[in-house]
Design brief:
alpha+beta, Thiol Ester Dehydrase, Chain A, twelve-stranded antiparallel sheet, 6 helices
Amino acid sequence: MTDDPLQSLLSTLDLAPAGNVGGQDVFTGTSQWEPMGRVFGGQVMAQSLVAAQRTIGDERSVHSLHAYFLRPGDLSIPITFTVDRIHDGRSFATRRTQASQDGVPILSMIASFQTTDDGLDHQVDMPRGLPDPDDVPSDSEVLSAVDHPVARAWAVRPFDMRHVPSPVYFEIEGARVAHQAVWLRATAPLPDDADLHRAALLYASDYTLLETIYRRHGIPMISPGLKVASLDHAMWWHRPARVDEWLLYVQESPNATGGRGLALGRIYDRSGRLIASVAQEGMIRVPRG
């Protein structure tokens, strides 16, 4: 593994083929180091998508994905990705990927792929009046100023992220609202591989979405006893885009109840095109005071 976080991500997405077992395509991969000791959910989702993409021809690209996080992943154990070729039609193809460690599943995902097609076209417009990324401090600057091992690790992620209005790592500034926006892009140029950019966008989509729930309730991420785990994640790709160019991730939480919170997101490029939509539910347990 390289010390460069973006190169480390590219390395983890470069899965090794492990043959065909019982009619299923099998791949293996490793994990990036994480300060909390668990496999990052965005990583295993992106790897699962890459595994499915390896069984799809160049004429189709992913348009939707639904994943369930089943168990925490262990950083020290290789991950096996098993792909079922569920359906191959004239326009659409469907794949199911299961990620496992030592024979125990940690994530189950189903994804749909489509050939390029013409059709109706509309979108929800990008919000107006938000600051440009050049006018917003980078999260890495905020985190680097804090003498804490987790903060120092998060300061060197493969994506440059810039919160609007501000991060929720250490405090909640401003109104207790259930929405925020995050500018993001890869820290360096990526290869001209559209499937790689789709997988990297899936990876990045898992970073900040549940923060809308923390912001609504005034709970910083460093709150003692706060327990959070992603339960599921869905994503729809609408239009192609590069993740090494600035994208705006607009996020909101419509509901939290029963120890769970739901968050929704829309990802735009700087010209205002809607690139993708995202939904995630997470377990959020706050210690009773």
